[in-house]
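Reading a protein record of the kind used here takes little practice once its layout is understood. An example of such a record is reproduced below.
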Amino acid sequence: MKNIVISGYYGQLNTGDEAILRVLIDRLREYERQENEDLNVVVLSSRPQLTSKIYSVDSVNRKKIWEVVKAIKRCDIFISGGGSLFQNETSNRSLYYYLFQIFLAKLFGKKVFIFSQGIGPIKKWYNVLIFRHIIKLADYITVRDYDSFDLLHRLKLKNKIDLSADPAFLLNPCCEKRVEKLLQTYNIDLSKKTIGIVVRKWKKEKDMTDKIAQIADILIENEGYNVVFIPFQGKWDIIKINEIISKMKNKPYILSESFQPHELLGIFRCFDLIVGMRLHSLIFASKMNKRFVGISYDPKIDSFLKMYGLKPAGYVDSFDVNNVLLNIQYMLNESKIQKKIEQITINMIQRAEKSFEILKEALSTTKKRKNINILGVRIDCINFNKAKKKCIDFLSSSSPKVVFTPNVEMIMLSQRDEKFKKILNSSDLNVPDGIGVVWASKYFGEKLYERVTGFDLMMSLMPELEKKRARVFLLGAKPGIAEKAKENLLKQFKNLEICGVHHGYFSEEENNTVVEIINSSKADVLFVAMGMKKQEEWIYKNKKKLKCKLIMGVGGSLDVLSGEVKRAPKMFQRLGLEWFYRLITQPWRFKRMLALPKFVLIVLKIRIFGGR
Protein backbone atom coordinates (compact mmCIF):
# COMPACT_ATOMS: atom_id res chain seq x y z
CA MET A 1 0.00 0.00 0.00
CA LYS A 2 1.24 3.48 -0.86
CA ASN A 3 0.62 6.39 1.47
CA ILE A 4 -0.22 9.78 -0.04
CA VAL A 5 -0.59 13.08 1.81
CA ILE A 6 -2.49 15.88 0.05
CA SER A 7 -1.99 19.43 1.31
CA GLY A 8 -4.02 22.49 0.34
CA TYR A 9 -6.56 25.01 1.52
CA TYR A 10 -9.04 22.25 2.35
CA GLY A 11 -11.81 22.17 4.93
CA GLN A 12 -12.60 25.90 4.55
CA LEU A 13 -15.73 25.16 2.47
CA ASN A 14 -14.22 26.93 -0.54
CA THR A 15 -15.90 25.46 -3.63
CA GLY A 16 -12.84 25.90 -5.82
CA ASP A 17 -10.41 24.15 -3.48
CA GLU A 18 -12.92 21.39 -2.70
CA ALA A 19 -13.40 20.86 -6.46
CA ILE A 20 -9.63 20.33 -6.80
CA LEU A 21 -9.64 17.86 -3.90
CA ARG A 22 -12.63 15.97 -5.33
CA VAL A 23 -10.88 15.51 -8.67
CA LEU A 24 -7.61 14.45 -6.98
CA ILE A 25 -9.31 11.82 -4.83
CA ASP A 26 -11.48 10.51 -7.68
CA ARG A 27 -8.43 10.10 -9.92
CA LEU A 28 -6.46 8.34 -7.20
CA ARG A 29 -9.34 5.90 -6.71
CA GLU A 30 -9.45 5.34 -10.45
CA TYR A 31 -5.73 4.53 -10.33
CA GLU A 32 -6.42 2.04 -7.51
CA ARG A 33 -9.01 0.24 -9.65
CA GLN A 34 -6.89 0.21 -12.82
CA GLU A 35 -3.66 -0.88 -11.17
CA ASN A 36 -5.28 -3.09 -8.50
CA GLU A 37 -3.21 -1.31 -5.88
CA ASP A 38 -4.16 0.05 -2.46
CA LEU A 39 -3.57 3.74 -1.77
CA ASN A 40 -3.97 5.29 1.65
CA VAL A 41 -4.87 8.96 1.17
CA VAL A 42 -4.49 11.46 4.02
CA VAL A 43 -5.76 15.02 3.54
CA LEU A 44 -4.48 17.93 5.62
CA SER A 45 -7.61 19.92 6.43
CA SER A 46 -8.81 22.61 8.80
CA ARG A 47 -11.96 20.49 9.36
CA PRO A 48 -10.62 16.92 9.30
CA GLN A 49 -13.83 15.24 10.43
CA LEU A 50 -15.86 16.94 7.69
CA THR A 51 -13.23 16.15 5.05
CA SER A 52 -13.16 12.48 6.14
CA LYS A 53 -16.95 12.29 5.95
CA ILE A 54 -17.27 13.91 2.51
CA TYR A 55 -14.40 12.12 0.76
CA SER A 56 -14.08 8.88 2.79
CA VAL A 57 -10.37 9.43 3.40
CA ASP A 58 -8.17 9.84 6.45
CA SER A 59 -7.73 13.48 7.42
CA VAL A 60 -5.42 15.35 9.77
CA ASN A 61 -5.92 18.80 11.26
CA ARG A 62 -3.50 21.01 9.35
CA LYS A 63 -3.29 23.38 12.32
CA LYS A 64 -1.86 20.66 14.57
CA ILE A 65 1.77 20.72 13.49
CA TRP A 66 2.79 17.52 15.25
CA GLU A 67 -0.02 15.59 13.55
CA VAL A 68 1.03 17.07 10.20
CA VAL A 69 4.66 16.06 10.83
CA LYS A 70 3.59 12.46 11.63
CA ALA A 71 1.40 12.26 8.51
CA ILE A 72 4.21 13.50 6.24
CA LYS A 73 6.71 11.15 7.89
CA ARG A 74 4.46 8.19 7.07
CA CYS A 75 3.75 9.08 3.44
CA ASP A 76 5.47 7.99 0.23
CA ILE A 77 4.32 10.91 -1.93
CA PHE A 78 3.51 14.41 -0.68
CA ILE A 79 1.18 16.36 -2.99
CA SER A 80 0.98 20.13 -2.58
CA GLY A 81 -2.30 20.24 -4.38
CA GLY A 82 -4.03 22.96 -6.30
CA GLY A 83 -4.96 26.55 -5.59
CA SER A 84 -2.48 29.39 -5.09
CA LEU A 85 -0.61 28.22 -2.01
CA PHE A 86 2.72 29.85 -2.82
CA GLN A 87 1.95 33.56 -2.56
CA ASN A 88 2.06 36.18 0.16
CA GLU A 89 -0.67 38.49 -1.09
CA THR A 90 -2.73 37.36 1.90
CA SER A 91 0.12 36.77 4.40
CA ASN A 92 3.71 35.61 4.77
CA ARG A 93 2.57 33.02 7.27
CA SER A 94 0.66 31.07 4.62
CA LEU A 95 3.66 31.03 2.27
CA TYR A 96 6.04 29.86 5.02
CA TYR A 97 3.59 27.19 6.19
CA TYR A 98 3.32 25.48 2.80
CA LEU A 99 7.07 25.78 2.13
CA PHE A 100 7.74 24.22 5.55
CA GLN A 101 5.68 21.17 4.52
CA ILE A 102 7.81 20.68 1.40
CA PHE A 103 11.04 21.05 3.38
CA LEU A 104 9.77 18.54 5.93
CA ALA A 105 8.76 16.01 3.26
CA LYS A 106 12.20 16.17 1.65
CA LEU A 107 13.86 15.97 5.07
CA PHE A 108 12.06 12.63 5.51
CA GLY A 109 13.11 11.54 2.00
CA LYS A 110 9.63 11.68 0.43
CA LYS A 111 8.69 12.40 -3.17
CA VAL A 112 7.18 15.88 -3.50
CA PHE A 113 4.72 16.89 -6.23
CA ILE A 114 3.79 20.58 -6.70
CA PHE A 115 0.46 19.84 -8.35
CA SER A 116 -1.10 22.32 -10.84
CA GLN A 117 -0.34 25.31 -8.66
CA GLY A 118 -0.76 28.97 -9.40
CA ILE A 119 2.48 30.58 -8.19
CA GLY A 120 2.77 34.14 -6.89
CA PRO A 121 2.73 36.98 -6.33
CA ILE A 122 5.65 36.65 -3.88
CA LYS A 123 6.67 40.00 -2.44
CA LYS A 124 10.07 40.94 -0.90
CA TRP A 125 13.38 39.59 -2.20
CA TYR A 126 14.02 37.40 0.85
CA ASN A 127 10.68 35.61 0.40
CA VAL A 128 11.55 34.94 -3.23
CA LEU A 129 14.95 33.59 -2.14
CA ILE A 130 13.40 31.25 0.47
CA PHE A 131 10.79 30.11 -2.05
CA ARG A 132 13.42 29.39 -4.72
CA HIS A 133 15.64 27.31 -2.43
CA ILE A 134 12.77 25.16 -1.16
CA ILE A 135 10.73 24.76 -4.34
CA LYS A 136 13.77 23.37 -6.18
CA LEU A 137 13.63 20.37 -3.79
CA ALA A 138 10.40 19.18 -5.45
CA ASP A 139 10.53 16.05 -7.61
CA TYR A 140 7.65 17.11 -9.87
CA ILE A 141 6.28 20.58 -10.63
CA THR A 142 3.22 21.41 -12.73
CA VAL A 143 1.64 24.88 -12.87
CA ARG A 144 -1.78 25.92 -14.08
CA ASP A 145 -1.04 29.15 -16.01
CA TYR A 146 1.57 30.87 -18.16
CA ASP A 147 2.41 33.55 -15.58
CA SER A 148 3.33 30.90 -12.97
CA PHE A 149 5.33 29.04 -15.63
CA ASP A 150 7.25 32.22 -16.53
CA LEU A 151 7.86 33.10 -12.87
CA LEU A 152 9.52 29.74 -12.15
CA HIS A 153 11.65 29.99 -15.27
CA ARG A 154 12.81 33.48 -14.29
CA LEU A 155 14.02 31.95 -11.01
CA LYS A 156 16.26 29.68 -13.15
CA LEU A 157 15.17 26.45 -11.51
CA LYS A 158 16.79 23.33 -12.91
CA ASN A 159 13.62 21.30 -12.25
CA LYS A 160 11.47 20.14 -15.15
CA ILE A 161 8.37 22.34 -15.04
CA ASP A 162 5.23 21.31 -16.93
CA LEU A 163 2.42 23.63 -17.92
CA SER A 164 -0.88 22.07 -16.90
CA ALA A 165 -4.30 23.53 -16.03
CA ASP A 166 -6.46 23.69 -12.95
CA PRO A 167 -7.66 20.18 -11.91
CA ALA A 168 -11.23 21.56 -11.60
CA PHE A 169 -11.43 21.37 -15.41
CA LEU A 170 -11.73 17.59 -14.89
CA LEU A 171 -14.62 17.79 -12.43
CA ASN A 172 -17.78 16.06 -13.67
CA PRO A 173 -21.11 17.88 -13.13
CA CYS A 174 -24.10 16.20 -11.56
CA CYS A 175 -26.89 15.09 -13.92
CA GLU A 176 -29.63 17.38 -15.24
CA LYS A 177 -32.34 15.66 -13.15
CA ARG A 178 -30.34 16.39 -10.02
CA VAL A 179 -29.99 20.05 -11.10
CA GLU A 180 -33.77 20.33 -11.61
CA LYS A 181 -34.36 18.94 -8.13
CA LEU A 182 -31.79 21.30 -6.56
CA LEU A 183 -33.35 24.37 -8.20
CA GLN A 184 -37.01 23.47 -7.52
CA THR A 185 -37.27 25.61 -4.38
CA TYR A 186 -35.92 28.74 -6.12
CA ASN A 187 -38.61 28.98 -8.86
CA ILE A 188 -36.22 30.66 -11.29
CA ASP A 189 -37.82 31.44 -14.68
CA LEU A 190 -35.14 29.93 -16.90
CA SER A 191 -36.90 31.09 -20.09
CA LYS A 192 -35.32 34.52 -19.39
CA LYS A 193 -31.60 35.22 -19.67
CA THR A 194 -29.99 34.29 -16.38
CA ILE A 195 -26.85 35.96 -15.07
CA GLY A 196 -24.90 34.40 -12.20
CA ILE A 197 -22.84 36.68 -9.97
CA VAL A 198 -20.04 35.35 -7.73
CA VAL A 199 -18.54 37.81 -5.26
CA ARG A 200 -16.09 37.73 -2.38
CA LYS A 201 -15.03 40.08 0.37
CA TRP A 202 -11.68 41.77 -0.25
CA LYS A 203 -9.72 44.07 2.03
CA LYS A 204 -8.92 46.68 -0.65
CA GLU A 205 -12.49 47.21 -1.87
CA LYS A 206 -13.83 50.78 -1.74
CA ASP A 207 -17.36 51.12 -3.09
CA MET A 208 -17.51 47.67 -4.70
CA THR A 209 -20.66 46.70 -2.76
CA ASP A 210 -22.62 49.69 -4.10
CA LYS A 211 -21.38 49.10 -7.65
CA ILE A 212 -22.32 45.41 -7.73
CA ALA A 213 -25.77 46.30 -6.33
CA GLN A 214 -26.15 48.89 -9.10
CA ILE A 215 -25.09 46.40 -11.81
CA ALA A 216 -27.54 43.77 -10.52
CA ASP A 217 -30.40 46.30 -10.41
CA ILE A 218 -29.75 47.43 -14.00
CA LEU A 219 -29.65 43.80 -15.24
CA ILE A 220 -32.99 43.07 -13.56
CA GLU A 221 -34.80 46.37 -14.16
CA ASN A 222 -33.51 47.57 -17.53
CA GLU A 223 -32.63 44.30 -19.24
CA GLY A 224 -35.23 41.99 -17.70
CA TYR A 225 -32.66 39.36 -16.78
CA ASN A 226 -32.64 36.97 -13.82
CA VAL A 227 -29.78 37.73 -11.44
CA VAL A 228 -28.61 34.85 -9.23
CA PHE A 229 -25.97 35.32 -6.54
CA ILE A 230 -23.84 32.21 -6.06
CA PRO A 231 -21.82 31.72 -2.85
CA PHE A 232 -18.50 29.91 -3.41
CA GLN A 233 -17.30 29.94 0.19
CA GLY A 234 -20.25 29.34 2.46
CA LYS A 235 -21.28 31.90 5.03
CA TRP A 236 -18.39 34.25 4.18
CA ASP A 237 -19.80 34.87 0.70
CA ILE A 238 -23.34 34.98 2.04
CA ILE A 239 -22.36 37.89 4.32
CA LYS A 240 -21.06 39.87 1.32
CA ILE A 241 -24.08 38.92 -0.82
CA ASN A 242 -26.47 40.14 1.89
CA GLU A 243 -24.57 43.44 2.06
CA ILE A 244 -25.06 43.90 -1.69
CA ILE A 245 -28.74 42.93 -1.63
CA SER A 246 -29.42 45.40 1.20
CA LYS A 247 -28.46 48.18 -1.23
CA MET A 248 -30.54 46.89 -4.15
CA LYS A 249 -33.99 48.06 -5.25
CA ASN A 250 -34.87 44.74 -6.91
CA LYS A 251 -34.90 41.24 -5.49
CA PRO A 252 -32.37 38.76 -6.95
CA TYR A 253 -32.08 35.04 -6.28
CA ILE A 254 -29.53 33.60 -3.83
CA LEU A 255 -28.39 29.99 -4.05
CA SER A 256 -27.67 27.92 -0.94
CA GLU A 257 -24.13 27.82 0.38
CA SER A 258 -24.36 24.04 0.97
CA PHE A 259 -24.00 22.80 -2.63
CA GLN A 260 -21.17 20.38 -3.37
CA PRO A 261 -18.76 21.40 -6.19
CA HIS A 262 -20.16 18.89 -8.72
CA GLU A 263 -23.70 20.09 -7.94
CA LEU A 264 -22.75 23.73 -8.43
CA LEU A 265 -20.98 22.84 -11.67
CA GLY A 266 -24.17 21.16 -12.90
CA ILE A 267 -26.22 24.24 -11.93
CA PHE A 268 -23.95 26.36 -14.14
CA ARG A 269 -25.72 24.74 -17.13
CA CYS A 270 -28.67 27.01 -16.38
CA PHE A 271 -26.77 30.31 -16.67
CA ASP A 272 -26.20 32.35 -19.82
CA LEU A 273 -23.28 34.24 -18.33
CA ILE A 274 -21.25 34.42 -15.10
CA VAL A 275 -19.84 37.59 -13.58
CA GLY A 276 -17.12 36.24 -11.31
CA MET A 277 -14.64 37.55 -8.78
CA ARG A 278 -13.55 34.05 -7.75
CA LEU A 279 -11.26 32.14 -10.11
CA HIS A 280 -13.19 28.89 -9.94
CA SER A 281 -16.46 30.58 -10.86
CA LEU A 282 -14.78 31.43 -14.19
CA ILE A 283 -13.34 27.92 -14.49
CA PHE A 284 -16.78 26.40 -13.81
CA ALA A 285 -18.32 28.68 -16.47
CA SER A 286 -15.70 27.77 -19.08
CA LYS A 287 -15.95 24.07 -18.22
CA MET A 288 -19.69 24.22 -18.96
CA ASN A 289 -19.01 26.33 -22.11
CA LYS A 290 -20.74 29.38 -20.65
CA ARG A 291 -19.74 32.99 -21.26
CA PHE A 292 -18.07 34.84 -18.41
CA VAL A 293 -16.84 38.25 -17.26
CA GLY A 294 -14.10 38.54 -14.65
CA ILE A 295 -13.59 41.18 -11.97
CA SER A 296 -10.06 40.79 -10.63
CA TYR A 297 -8.90 40.83 -7.01
CA ASP A 298 -5.73 38.81 -7.64
CA PRO A 299 -3.24 38.27 -10.51
CA LYS A 300 -4.53 34.70 -10.90
CA ILE A 301 -7.79 36.12 -12.33
CA ASP A 302 -5.81 38.14 -14.89
CA SER A 303 -3.71 35.06 -15.77
CA PHE A 304 -6.80 32.93 -16.35
CA LEU A 305 -8.59 35.54 -18.48
CA LYS A 306 -5.42 36.03 -20.53
CA MET A 307 -5.53 32.36 -21.57
CA TYR A 308 -8.97 33.04 -23.09
CA GLY A 309 -7.79 36.24 -24.75
CA LEU A 310 -9.78 38.38 -22.29
CA LYS A 311 -9.06 41.11 -19.75
CA PRO A 312 -10.75 41.87 -16.42
CA ALA A 313 -13.82 44.10 -16.70
CA GLY A 314 -12.37 45.87 -13.66
CA TYR A 315 -10.63 45.41 -10.33
CA VAL A 316 -12.26 45.18 -6.89
CA ASP A 317 -10.78 48.50 -5.80
CA SER A 318 -11.44 50.33 -9.09
CA PHE A 319 -14.01 49.43 -11.69
CA ASP A 320 -16.56 51.32 -13.71
CA VAL A 321 -20.18 50.11 -13.65
CA ASN A 322 -20.74 51.01 -17.29
CA ASN A 323 -17.59 49.14 -18.37
CA VAL A 324 -18.78 45.99 -16.61
CA LEU A 325 -22.22 46.29 -18.24
CA LEU A 326 -20.61 46.80 -21.66
CA ASN A 327 -18.52 43.66 -21.11
CA ILE A 328 -21.64 41.69 -20.16
CA GLN A 329 -23.53 42.82 -23.28
CA TYR A 330 -20.52 42.16 -25.52
CA MET A 331 -20.09 38.63 -24.15
CA LEU A 332 -23.82 37.87 -24.50
CA ASN A 333 -24.11 39.20 -28.07
CA GLU A 334 -20.75 38.29 -29.65
CA SER A 335 -21.48 35.15 -31.67
CA LYS A 336 -17.86 34.01 -32.09
CA ILE A 337 -17.02 34.10 -28.38
CA GLN A 338 -18.91 30.87 -27.61
CA LYS A 339 -16.87 28.78 -30.06
CA LYS A 340 -13.64 30.36 -28.79
CA ILE A 341 -14.48 29.41 -25.19
CA GLU A 342 -15.29 25.84 -26.25
CA GLN A 343 -12.03 25.40 -28.19
CA ILE A 344 -9.81 26.82 -25.43
CA THR A 345 -11.61 24.76 -22.77
CA ILE A 346 -10.89 21.54 -24.70
CA ASN A 347 -7.21 22.49 -24.61
CA MET A 348 -7.41 23.29 -20.88
CA ILE A 349 -8.95 19.88 -20.15
CA GLN A 350 -6.17 18.15 -22.09
CA ARG A 351 -3.55 20.15 -20.18
CA ALA A 352 -5.18 19.32 -16.83
CA GLU A 353 -4.83 15.63 -17.70
CA LYS A 354 -1.06 16.08 -17.98
CA SER A 355 -0.62 16.49 -14.21
CA PHE A 356 -2.44 13.23 -13.63
CA GLU A 357 -0.30 11.41 -16.19
CA ILE A 358 2.79 12.58 -14.29
CA LEU A 359 1.19 11.59 -10.96
CA LYS A 360 0.41 8.13 -12.34
CA GLU A 361 4.05 7.78 -13.40
CA ALA A 362 5.21 8.92 -9.94
CA LEU A 363 2.94 6.35 -8.27
CA SER A 364 4.08 3.53 -10.55
CA THR A 365 7.75 4.23 -9.77
CA THR A 366 7.11 4.24 -6.02
CA LYS A 367 7.47 0.60 -5.13
CA LYS A 368 5.42 -0.63 -2.19
CA ARG A 369 4.91 -4.16 -1.00
CA LYS A 370 1.45 -5.59 -0.46
CA ASN A 371 2.63 -7.77 2.41
CA ILE A 372 5.71 -8.56 4.47
CA ASN A 373 7.10 -11.73 5.99
CA ILE A 374 7.72 -11.56 9.75
CA LEU A 375 9.45 -14.74 10.91
CA GLY A 376 7.67 -16.70 8.20
CA VAL A 377 4.18 -15.25 8.82
CA ARG A 378 2.59 -13.08 6.14
CA ILE A 379 1.37 -9.70 7.38
CA ASP A 380 -0.61 -7.56 4.93
CA CYS A 381 0.55 -3.95 4.60
CA ILE A 382 -2.77 -2.38 5.43
CA ASN A 383 -4.09 0.26 7.79
CA PHE A 384 -7.29 0.18 9.84
CA ASN A 385 -9.60 1.89 7.34
CA LYS A 386 -8.33 -0.19 4.43
CA ALA A 387 -8.73 -3.40 6.46
CA LYS A 388 -12.31 -2.42 7.27
CA LYS A 389 -13.05 -1.66 3.60
CA LYS A 390 -11.56 -4.97 2.51
CA CYS A 391 -13.74 -6.87 5.00
CA ILE A 392 -16.83 -5.10 3.66
CA ASP A 393 -15.76 -5.97 0.10
CA PHE A 394 -15.47 -9.62 1.16
CA LEU A 395 -19.25 -9.62 1.71
CA SER A 396 -19.66 -9.55 -2.08
CA SER A 397 -17.52 -12.66 -2.60
CA SER A 398 -18.93 -15.96 -3.77
CA SER A 399 -16.73 -18.06 -1.45
CA PRO A 400 -15.77 -17.62 2.23
CA LYS A 401 -12.98 -15.12 2.93
CA VAL A 402 -10.89 -15.54 6.07
CA VAL A 403 -9.38 -12.79 8.25
CA PHE A 404 -6.74 -13.58 10.88
CA THR A 405 -5.16 -11.16 13.34
CA PRO A 406 -1.56 -12.32 13.96
CA ASN A 407 0.12 -10.87 17.04
CA VAL A 408 3.52 -11.54 18.61
CA GLU A 409 2.28 -14.60 20.56
CA MET A 410 0.85 -16.17 17.41
CA ILE A 411 4.01 -15.48 15.39
CA MET A 412 6.20 -16.97 18.12
CA LEU A 413 3.95 -20.04 18.41
CA SER A 414 4.25 -20.53 14.64
CA GLN A 415 8.03 -20.86 15.06
CA ARG A 416 7.46 -24.15 16.90
CA ASP A 417 4.44 -25.26 14.89
CA GLU A 418 4.87 -25.33 11.09
CA LYS A 419 1.28 -26.42 10.58
CA PHE A 420 0.03 -23.37 12.49
CA LYS A 421 2.30 -21.13 10.38
CA LYS A 422 0.80 -22.66 7.23
CA ILE A 423 -2.71 -21.99 8.58
CA LEU A 424 -1.91 -18.34 9.33
CA ASN A 425 -0.54 -17.87 5.82
CA SER A 426 -3.64 -19.43 4.24
CA SER A 427 -5.93 -16.49 5.13
CA ASP A 428 -7.26 -13.89 2.71
CA LEU A 429 -6.23 -11.06 5.05
CA ASN A 430 -3.73 -10.94 7.93
CA VAL A 431 -3.86 -7.68 9.89
CA PRO A 432 -1.09 -6.55 12.29
CA ASP A 433 -2.69 -7.06 15.71
CA GLY A 434 -0.17 -5.72 18.19
CA ILE A 435 2.40 -2.98 18.59
CA GLY A 436 5.18 -5.60 18.51
CA VAL A 437 4.25 -6.58 14.94
CA VAL A 438 4.20 -2.91 13.88
CA TRP A 439 7.59 -2.33 15.55
CA ALA A 440 9.15 -5.35 13.83
CA SER A 441 7.81 -4.45 10.38
CA LYS A 442 10.44 -1.75 9.77
CA TYR A 443 13.10 -4.48 9.85
CA PHE A 444 11.29 -6.66 7.32
CA GLY A 445 10.97 -4.40 4.29
CA GLU A 446 7.88 -2.24 4.87
CA LYS A 447 7.14 0.00 7.84
CA LEU A 448 3.59 -0.43 9.13
CA TYR A 449 2.24 2.63 10.91
CA GLU A 450 -0.65 1.34 12.95
CA ARG A 451 -1.89 -1.85 14.50
CA VAL A 452 -5.26 -3.26 13.54
CA THR A 453 -6.65 -5.09 16.53
CA GLY A 454 -9.20 -7.84 16.00
CA PHE A 455 -11.63 -6.40 18.53
CA ASP A 456 -11.53 -2.87 17.06
CA LEU A 457 -11.85 -4.18 13.52
CA MET A 458 -14.81 -6.35 14.48
CA MET A 459 -16.57 -3.46 16.24
CA SER A 460 -15.94 -1.06 13.35
CA LEU A 461 -17.70 -3.53 11.04
CA MET A 462 -20.89 -3.63 13.13
CA PRO A 463 -22.46 -0.35 11.87
CA GLU A 464 -21.72 -1.40 8.27
CA LEU A 465 -23.17 -4.87 8.81
CA GLU A 466 -26.23 -3.24 10.39
CA LYS A 467 -26.72 -0.97 7.34
CA LYS A 468 -26.25 -3.83 4.87
CA ARG A 469 -28.63 -6.09 6.84
CA ALA A 470 -25.87 -8.72 6.88
CA ARG A 471 -26.53 -11.75 9.09
CA VAL A 472 -24.00 -12.30 11.89
CA PHE A 473 -23.19 -15.49 13.82
CA LEU A 474 -21.18 -15.47 17.07
CA LEU A 475 -19.23 -18.66 17.80
CA GLY A 476 -16.97 -19.30 20.79
CA ALA A 477 -16.25 -18.66 24.47
CA LYS A 478 -17.85 -20.52 27.39
CA PRO A 479 -21.54 -21.43 27.39
CA GLY A 480 -23.69 -18.35 27.97
CA ILE A 481 -20.99 -15.83 27.00
CA ALA A 482 -22.00 -15.55 23.32
CA GLU A 483 -25.63 -14.93 24.41
CA LYS A 484 -24.53 -12.06 26.68
CA ALA A 485 -22.35 -10.66 23.92
CA LYS A 486 -25.36 -10.73 21.60
CA GLU A 487 -27.52 -8.86 24.13
CA ASN A 488 -24.91 -6.13 24.57
CA LEU A 489 -24.35 -5.79 20.84
CA LEU A 490 -28.07 -5.36 20.21
CA LYS A 491 -28.22 -2.60 22.81
CA GLN A 492 -25.67 -0.69 20.75
CA PHE A 493 -26.77 -1.78 17.26
CA LYS A 494 -30.53 -2.29 17.49
CA ASN A 495 -31.02 -3.34 13.85
CA LEU A 496 -28.06 -5.69 13.69
CA GLU A 497 -29.18 -9.15 12.55
CA ILE A 498 -27.48 -11.67 14.85
CA CYS A 499 -28.87 -14.87 13.37
CA GLY A 500 -27.27 -17.26 15.83
CA VAL A 501 -24.84 -17.92 18.68
CA HIS A 502 -23.01 -21.01 19.93
CA HIS A 503 -20.37 -21.63 22.57
CA GLY A 504 -16.91 -22.90 21.66
CA TYR A 505 -16.85 -25.89 24.01
CA PHE A 506 -18.07 -28.61 21.67
CA SER A 507 -16.48 -31.96 20.89
CA GLU A 508 -15.05 -33.25 17.61
CA GLU A 509 -18.16 -35.40 17.21
CA GLU A 510 -20.38 -32.30 17.51
CA ASN A 511 -18.38 -30.31 14.95
CA ASN A 512 -20.50 -31.14 11.90
CA THR A 513 -23.66 -30.30 13.83
CA VAL A 514 -22.27 -26.86 14.74
CA VAL A 515 -21.30 -26.24 11.09
CA GLU A 516 -24.83 -27.22 10.02
CA ILE A 517 -26.34 -24.83 12.62
CA ILE A 518 -24.21 -21.99 11.22
CA ASN A 519 -25.12 -22.80 7.60
CA SER A 520 -28.84 -23.16 8.34
CA SER A 521 -28.79 -19.70 9.96
CA LYS A 522 -27.74 -18.28 6.56
CA ALA A 523 -25.03 -16.24 8.25
CA ASP A 524 -23.04 -13.85 6.06
CA VAL A 525 -20.43 -13.16 8.74
CA LEU A 526 -19.00 -15.57 11.29
CA PHE A 527 -16.96 -14.27 14.23
CA VAL A 528 -14.99 -17.11 15.84
CA ALA A 529 -13.75 -16.53 19.41
CA MET A 530 -12.04 -19.73 20.56
CA GLY A 531 -8.67 -18.30 21.52
CA MET A 532 -5.35 -18.27 19.73
CA LYS A 533 -4.52 -21.27 17.54
CA LYS A 534 -7.69 -23.23 18.28
CA GLN A 535 -9.88 -20.75 16.38
CA GLU A 536 -7.49 -20.54 13.40
CA GLU A 537 -7.26 -24.32 13.19
CA TRP A 538 -11.05 -24.64 13.35
CA ILE A 539 -11.58 -22.04 10.63
CA TYR A 540 -8.95 -23.69 8.39
CA LYS A 541 -10.50 -27.12 8.85
CA ASN A 542 -14.11 -26.03 8.26
CA LYS A 543 -13.76 -23.18 5.74
CA LYS A 544 -14.84 -25.28 2.76
CA LYS A 545 -17.91 -26.57 4.61
CA LEU A 546 -19.13 -23.12 5.64
CA LYS A 547 -21.37 -20.95 3.47
CA CYS A 548 -20.48 -17.62 5.11
CA LYS A 549 -18.88 -14.81 3.12
CA LEU A 550 -16.59 -13.50 5.87
CA ILE A 551 -15.00 -15.56 8.67
CA MET A 552 -12.87 -13.79 11.24
CA GLY A 553 -10.92 -15.00 14.25
CA VAL A 554 -11.50 -12.59 17.14
CA GLY A 555 -9.84 -14.23 20.17
CA GLY A 556 -11.33 -13.12 23.47
CA SER A 557 -13.63 -10.48 21.95
CA LEU A 558 -16.86 -12.17 23.05
CA ASP A 559 -15.61 -12.23 26.65
CA VAL A 560 -15.07 -8.46 26.42
CA LEU A 561 -18.43 -7.87 24.73
CA SER A 562 -20.26 -9.93 27.34
CA GLY A 563 -18.68 -7.91 30.15
CA GLU A 564 -16.86 -10.93 31.62
CA VAL A 565 -13.48 -9.39 30.83
CA LYS A 566 -12.56 -5.71 30.89
CA ARG A 567 -10.52 -4.31 28.06
CA ALA A 568 -7.45 -2.18 28.83
CA PRO A 569 -8.18 1.52 29.43
CA LYS A 570 -7.93 3.85 26.42
CA MET A 571 -4.57 5.19 27.56
CA PHE A 572 -3.01 1.71 27.45
CA GLN A 573 -4.62 1.08 24.03
CA ARG A 574 -3.26 4.31 22.55
CA LEU A 575 0.24 3.56 23.84
CA GLY A 576 0.12 -0.02 22.54
CA LEU A 577 0.45 -1.39 26.09
CA GLU A 578 -2.62 -3.62 26.29
CA TRP A 579 -0.27 -6.58 26.81
CA PHE A 580 1.13 -4.85 29.94
CA TYR A 581 -2.36 -4.17 31.30
CA ARG A 582 -3.26 -7.86 30.82
CA LEU A 583 -0.06 -8.84 32.61
CA ILE A 584 -0.76 -6.72 35.71
CA THR A 585 -4.44 -7.72 35.85
CA GLN A 586 -3.88 -11.39 34.89
CA PRO A 587 -0.42 -12.30 36.23
CA TRP A 588 -1.00 -15.99 35.44
CA ARG A 589 -0.43 -15.02 31.77
CA PHE A 590 3.26 -14.43 32.62
CA LYS A 591 4.56 -17.44 30.65
CA ARG A 592 2.63 -16.40 27.55
CA MET A 593 3.98 -12.86 27.88
CA LEU A 594 7.56 -14.16 27.65
CA ALA A 595 6.91 -14.44 23.92
CA LEU A 596 7.33 -10.67 23.57
CA PRO A 597 10.95 -10.30 24.81
CA LYS A 598 11.91 -13.47 22.88
CA PHE A 599 10.35 -11.96 19.75
CA VAL A 600 12.27 -8.69 20.24
CA LEU A 601 15.56 -10.57 20.62
CA ILE A 602 14.98 -12.65 17.48
CA VAL A 603 14.07 -9.57 15.42
CA LEU A 604 17.14 -7.66 16.64
CA LYS A 605 19.34 -10.69 15.94
CA ILE A 606 18.04 -10.78 12.36
CA ARG A 607 18.53 -7.03 12.07
CA ILE A 608 22.17 -7.26 13.22
CA PHE A 609 23.30 -10.57 11.72
CA GLY A 610 20.88 -10.99 8.83
CA GLY A 611 18.85 -14.03 7.82
CA ARG A 612 15.28 -14.87 8.78
About this structure: The radius of gyration is 30 Å. DSSP finds 27 helices and 21 strands in the chain. Residues 371-577 form one domain. Residues 335-364 form the longest helix (30 residues).
